[in-house]
Amino acid sequence: MLRVENLVTAYGKIKALRGVTLEAREGEVTCLLGPNGAGKTTTMFSIAGILRPTSGDITLDGESLRGLGAARVVGKGVALVPENRLVFPQMTVSDNLHAGAFSRRDDRKRQRDMEKIYQRFPVLRERSRQPAGTLSGGEQQMLAIARALMARPRILLMDEPSIGLAPIIVAEIFRIIAEINREGVSILLVEQNARMALKFAHRLYLIQQGEITFSGTPDELGQDEVIQRSYLGG
Amino acid sequence: MDAYHVTVLSNIGMISLIALSAYLLLVCGEISFGQQAYFGIGAYISGIATAMWGWPLWSGMLAGGLIGASAAAFVGALTLRINGFYFSIATLAFAEMMRLLLYVFRYQVEIGGELVGPDGENGFHGIRWIFENDISTVEFMWIIYGVLASVVAGMMFMERSRLGRIFRMIGQDDMLARMQGVNVLLYKVLAALIAGFIAGVGGSLYAHSFTYIEPQFFNVMLGVHGLAYGLIGGLGVAFGPLVGVAIDIGFLEAIRWIQGYRMIAFGGLVAVMLIFWPRGIFDEKRWYSIRRCLRRMCGAETS
User: Fold this and answer.
1) Which residue from A72, A88, A95 is facing B176, i.e. has the nearest CB?
2) For the whole prediction, is pTM greater than 0.80?
3) For chain A, is the Cβ count within 10 Å smaller at the N or the C terminus?
4) Is residue B238 part of a domain?
5) Which range (A42-46, B24-28, B80-84, B118-122) has the least confidence?
6) pLDDT value at position B274?
7) A2-232: CATH topology
């Protein structure tokens, strides 16, 4: 459903992406693995419309997203859970969730979605009136995912959801991601945690220095090789 | 109440409007050093409207507010695309340009054998609406506070609305706001427009309270004070800037022996605040705890 073709994105003169081509298929978890500085976040930001690619194309079911700008890309059903800047810290948890539904106008459905989200994340209901900045790292990650879901995305882009979290919470986050995926939301995941990614991804891309160096299913590549190639290069 | 106190209180009320104007942009994460321009525009436009065209105060005030709002939206649309830093500089440049233009702005008509209207560096005499309508300074003070109360009420209502949430989202993280589908530039220009309107209305009151205005009133210090009031009083809620004004004019003005050192005390206060409470006395956190306390006291369950 989401196709990225020959994408080139540059910061000034430095090309961070040198012709990235990848596809996230409907209903699947697609994982983009690679070392630091390989261009993973740049790819995500380019898709989400935060960065302007120099060339190449991004399409969602054949419709081009390139150059639309972040605000309109969300409206098309592509929601991004960014790395590190997760929540609006001084706004309450419930206001953060409302913020996610900004692009929607259907008030009643929104209320129902909110209820569903509180059922999935009971901890957010408990803390609904607290400023989001007072939540723990794991809770903030959950809030960020929940907020993205409020936009009713068709595809969810997640930038390193496991970063900086304790293993037990990482497991919980991935359980939630798998659950969301089973409910029909396609997922494009950027990870450094290769072990977790291999367990959940249907399709795998390795990115190195702005180029895709492998694409296929996790089975085509042994775990050791993925780890070796995504961390050590080669 | 003697004349001195009426003047001080009237000043607090009018300056509060420029503080609220700067506050709204601060909430959106933008620092404007130029709100005095719209204050000045409001003062001149409304003065011209009442003294020269014979309009009633309300229409003059509305005109001052609207022209101030349009000017602010125009400047905002040009400058809010650029990063925060440059926006601040651009607003300062525009305000200074405005002020210098007022020095050469001459537009006078003869009314009752006397020339009335802006006369460049000699200022604008004879904005006599309050004398002509037999309104005492005390009564005018109540008009000022009536306007101020409506603006504060309007802003507090806005802060609880969708629009207010959007402004706060943009102020906290404009990139994250964009990721939620917010057209950041559009809403920033809207904030500038509302802020320009509030400043314009404040300026209108100012012109009619003093009956005489000159370009020098609308210099950068007015804008800097407006900004500082929000930063002292707090950015969590719309009455924060009013607390800032009350502290500066009410408290520092009241202490007679401090008079000569007032600016030093004020500068020191701003510096201390920025170190310890960078978002003011009533910042988001404190306002949040206050609201929680109030809710507990009332026992009400509202969402």
Assistant:
1) A88
2) yes
3) C
4) no
5) B80-84
6) 84
7) Rossmann fold (3.40.50)
